[in-house]
Amino acid sequence: MASLTLTTFQNADGSPVENGYLLIWLNQACVSGTNQLGVQKVKVPLIGSGEVEGSPSFFASDTLEPTSAYYVQSVYSANGQLVAGPFQITVTDSGGDGGDGGGGSGGVGIG
To answer: Cα 64 from chain centroid?
Structure first.
C-alpha cells in the first residue's frame, strides 16, 4: 500500500484549499494481487492549510492489472466547487512526482 505524501493544494490565487477535499478513483475496475478494486470515488479531506488529513492509503499503480488502469484525481473547495482536475496520477511506494499536480504545490505527490 502507498500513502499520500504531504502536499499543499492551492487555489488559482495561491491560497490553500482550506477544508476542501480530493476525490480519487480508478479509471476502470482492476486487481492488485488478490484484491479486486472497483471504480468508486474515495473522498480525502484537506485541512485548513490545504494539506491531506491523515494518511490515506492506496494500492501502488505498478501493482494494478490490467496495466491500463490508473488513478484519477480532482480537487474541490470546501463548498464543493472544482478547483483542479480531473487528471491522471501515479501512486508509488517510494514517492515520485505523482503526475500533473494542477492545484497542488510540487505536484500531486502520492507515494
So the answer is: 16
67 in Cβ contact with 26 (< 8 Å): no
pTM to 2 decimals? 0.80
pLDDT category, 93, cuts 50, 70, 90? confident
d(CA 96, CA 106): 10
| 85 CA to centre of own chain | 10
CA dihedral sign, ordered 73, 41, 91, 78:
positive
From the number of C-beta atoms within 10 Å of its C-beta (0-12, 13-18, 19+), residue 50 rates as buried
- Nearest in space to 4 (alpha carbons), one of 16, 21, 18: 21
- pLDDT tens digits along 55-83: 888 999 999 999 999 999 999 999 999 99
